[in-house]
TrEMBL record:
<feature type="domain" description="RING-type">
    <location>
        <begin position="78"/>
        <end position="122"/>
    </location>
</feature>
<protein>
    <submittedName>
        <fullName>E3 ubiquitin-protein ligase WAV3</fullName>
    </submittedName>
</protein>
<keyword id="KW-0479">Metal-binding</keyword>
<feature type="signal peptide">
    <location>
        <begin position="1"/>
        <end position="25"/>
    </location>
</feature>
<dbReference type="InterPro" id="IPR001841">
    <property type="entry name" value="Znf_RING"/>
</dbReference>
<dbReference type="InterPro" id="IPR051266">
    <property type="entry name" value="CLCR"/>
</dbReference>
<dbReference type="InterPro" id="IPR032838">
    <property type="entry name" value="Vwaint_dom"/>
</dbReference>
<feature type="region of interest" description="Disordered">
    <location>
        <begin position="684"/>
        <end position="712"/>
    </location>
</feature>
<dbReference type="Pfam" id="PF14624">
    <property type="entry name" value="Vwaint"/>
</dbReference>
<keyword id="KW-0863">Zinc-finger</keyword>
<dbReference type="InterPro" id="IPR002035">
    <property type="entry name" value="VWF_A"/>
</dbReference>
<keyword id="KW-0732">Signal</keyword>
<dbReference type="Pfam" id="PF13639">
    <property type="entry name" value="zf-RING_2"/>
</dbReference>
<keyword id="KW-0862">Zinc</keyword>
<feature type="domain" description="VWFA">
    <location>
        <begin position="267"/>
        <end position="460"/>
    </location>
</feature>
<feature type="compositionally biased region" description="Polar residues">
    <location>
        <begin position="30"/>
        <end position="39"/>
    </location>
</feature>
<dbReference type="Pfam" id="PF00092">
    <property type="entry name" value="VWA"/>
</dbReference>
């Protein structure tokens, strides 16, 4: 038997002259006849493709004419297809527990037919690659995420499943190919929600809690004979806390199911930059971060994945993150490759299309956009002429979701690294109603995603509308300072409103109003503040009765102290205004002026009542302004990180929502808007060791992935 096998190998290696591809380490520049296109050596390409790679006249020195017996060569060739294995050439690799490595699609096809032993050492495997499409199912011979002409990148992610469970899943849920040669024109293939929505409504009934409304006048009393202009009133809102539904379901025999559906489910679309500059470490860490997101989505949440470079493609339809859904999503992430330019607009267009075309809707929907580059396709100056003008960043956002259209989908944007266009990223987030985060170091990308989804998975209030009514006929509203939230004051000054939108569990909002107060001889009721909102689980509309704002009117006011709450929020607004002014000065090239603006504002804040009282928010604001001063010390520093840092700070303060800034999410001034759900998710991310970032993903350490500069 052994003799026959040796003869077969001899015939295969010598008589047929089948070329055994070299590894990349073995290829020299003189080997010009070896194709540089990795698709040329695809196992599914056919014999003619392999013959095309052979030298026209084999010579005794042609190493490709025989199978190498060296251990080094055998480790670099797939034992199934005999083609070389090299990270960065478009093939996902699978390393088994016996330490032998194969092309992922080769071993997946092998396992698909019931073979659960190693083809090399015949060891029995406890874990095998999750079954999926093989190379023959793709028009170009291998599973592709990118268009045919995209350069390929690393694939060191192994998606594992215990093989008995794989067989069970394959019987219960037939897997379909992840990627197709062409996309549907309408993305109405979202997975049905089934009875999950009905169960959620059933849980919510009778367990709903209310938003908390508090008001604080600047002073508690105004002298009877005195009239005050621009008298400040603070409106403080706080959303219900997250665990309330779990308490309501403790006595139910369906406790486990109730806990899973006690919050509003999410439709999440991730739009990921896979341009050339995202190669190496960046792409590896992005895959890891997406694995964390997939792990922490529930079975009623749905996820879709869009990848973009020079063009965009939907890699994964909007599917529920059930056990099988997670595995398919991990397969899609596993196959991400990098290459090409940066077409942010096309990526967003596809992401919005997924949401707009869906047949069914979860109560919450959002888009996460990550990019490390500058859009090279859509960003153009707003007008012609000799002088360059501000690019039209609004053109990056599909018109259907821009502010004021009534169909706003928040895009939470993450600018990755020093080379991204922070101005366009910030503009996208502001236009859509999302936040902008600046990921300065590669290692914090998972933490940034964790903080964001910690909020998205805890939405308890939607479409909140705050109404303000002047009770005293001589009291008139002046202005409403609400940051990026739209507000309106009627012409007669008797009514006003603020559109707050969504609130995460335990999230707080603070708005400052100014009113004109007339003389009066008795206690004056200035305003009545109420709100309406929709509960995302029960879909019921909640109407909160108005809370009255009163001040006393004594004959003489001897001495009184300003409200600490009002002073705190006034300082926050003053700090945000200083950031905006400093940024404008920096963009004019006046860095010294920008630093002076920040320094002067710090001095003013230091003299305020809240700072003198040791208020933590105001102390954090001072630290934040000081950090911005340091990042404006030179133009090089400002270009590299200062601009993005300031814009992320402005985004955070204008929406009163936590963003990631710089190289850490632990600084005290970054915790001002964090909710308990955000903190919990962030701690999950930070306490996971690199080896256990996700139970179904194994990845080489980041240091194994070189990250040379690449275009795009």
């Amino acid at each position: 038997m052994g003799s026959r096998w040796r003869k077969a190998k001899l015939a295969l290696g010598l008589n047929l002259c089948v070329y055994v591809p070299k590894t990349l380490d073995d290829v020299s520049p003189s080997d010009s006849w070896i194709s540089s296109d990795p698709t040329a050596v695809s196992p599914a390409s056919g014999a003619s493709d392999f013959r095309a790679l052979m030298p026209s006249t084999p010579t005794p020195t042609s190493s490709g004419l025989r199978l190498s017996k060296s251990s080094a060569s055998s480790k670099k060739a797939c034992a199934i297809c005999l083609a070389f294995m090299k990270p960065g050439h478009g093939y996902a690799l699978f390393t088994a527990e016996c330490s032998h490595t194969f092309h992922f699609h080769c071993i997946a096809a092998n396992v698909k037919h019931g073979n659960h032993v190693c083809p090399v050492c015949r060891a029995k495997w406890k874990e095998i690659p999750f079954g999926g499409p093989t190379s023959c199912e793709y028009p170009h011979g291998r599973a592709r995420v990118s268009p045919v002409n995209w350069p390929q990148d690393d694939g060191f992610v192994n998606v594992l499943r215990r093989f008995p469970r794989v067989e069970s899943l394959n019987r219960q849920h037939r897997l379909t190919p992840l990627f197709h040669s062409s996309e549907p024109t309408v993305f109405n293939d979202d997975e049905s929600l089934g009875s999950l929505a009905e169960t959620a409504e059933e849980i919510q009934h009778g367990c709903m809690r209310m938003v908390e409304i508090k008001t604080y006048p600047e002073f508690s009393a105004i002298q009877q004979s005195v009239s005050e202009e621009n008298f400040t009133i603070l409106i403080h809102l706080k959303a219900p806390f997250a665990p309330m539904m779990q308490l309501c379901s403790r006595n139910s025999h369906r406790n486990t199911n109730l806990l899973k559906t006690s919050r509003a489910s999410v439709d999440l679309v991730t739009v990921l930059d896979v341009s050339g500059s995202m190669g190496g470490t960046k792409l590896a860490l992005l895959k890891r971060a997406m694995g964390f997101v997939i792990q922490n989505l529930g079975p009623s949440d749905r996820l879709s994945v869009i990848a973009f470079s020079s063009t965009a493609r939907r890699l994964f339809p909007l599917h529920r993150m059930s056990e099988s859904g997670r595995q398919q999503a991990l397969q899609a992430i596993n196959l991400l490759t990098s290459g090409g330019g940066t077409n942010i607009a096309e990526g967003l267009r596809k992401g919005v299309k997924v949401i707009e075309d869906r047949k069914e809707k979860n109560p919450v929907c959002s888009i996460i956009l990550l990019s490390d580059g500058q859009d090279t396709y859509m960003v153009t100056p707003t007008s012609g002429g000799a002088q360059p003008t501000q690019p039209d960043y609004r053109s990056l956002v599909p018109s259907s979701i821009r502010g004021g259209t009534g169909h706003q989908i928040p895009v939470h944007v993450f600018g990755f690294g020093a080379d991204h266009d922070s101005e366009s990223m910030h503009s996208i987030s502001e236009t859509s109603g999302g936040t902008f985060s600046f990921i300065e170091t590669e290692g914090t990308i998972q933490d940034a995603f964790a903080q964001c989804i910690g909020g998205l998975l805890s939405v308890v209030v939607q479409e909140m509308h705050v109404g303000v009514e002047c009770v005293h006929p001589s009291v008139h509203l002046g202005s409403i300072k609400s940051g990026s939230y739209a507000n309106q004051v009627t012409d007669d000054g008797h009514n006003g409103s603020i559109d707050v939108g969504d609130l995460y569990a335990d999230e707080e909002r603070d708005f400052l109003l100014s009113v004109d107060v007339p003389p009066a001889g008795e206690e004056t009721v200035l305003l009545k503040v109420g709100c309406t909102y929709r509960d995302p689980v029960s879909k019921e509309t909640v109407n909160m009765e108005g809370v009255e704002v009163k001040i006393s009117r004594p004959l003489i006011v001897v001495e009184q102290t300003m409200s600490i709450e009002v002073d705190r929020q006034r300082n926050r607004l003053l700090a945000a205004e200083a950031m905006a002014e400093a940024r404008a000065a920096a963009e004019r090239g006046e860095l010294s002026e920008a630093v002076c603006i920040l320094e002067e504002r710090r001095r003013i804040l230091s003299e305020s009542l809240a700072v003198r009282s040791g208020d933590q928010l105001c102390l954090a604001l001072d630290a934040e302004l000081r950090e911005m001063q340091e990042r404006m010390a030179s133009w090089q520093r400002y270009e590299a990180s200062g601009r993005a840092y300031v814009l992320s700070g402005l985004s955070s303060h204008s929406w009163q929502r936590a963003t990631t800034r710089g190289d850490s999410t632990d600084s005290s001034f970054l915790q001002a808007y964090q909710t308990p759900s955000m903190v919990d998710m962030l701690q999950r991310s930070q306490t996971m060791s690199p080896a256990s970032r996700h139970p179904n993903i194994q990845m080489r350490q980041a240091k194994s992935f070189p990250a040379p500069p690449q275009p795009g």
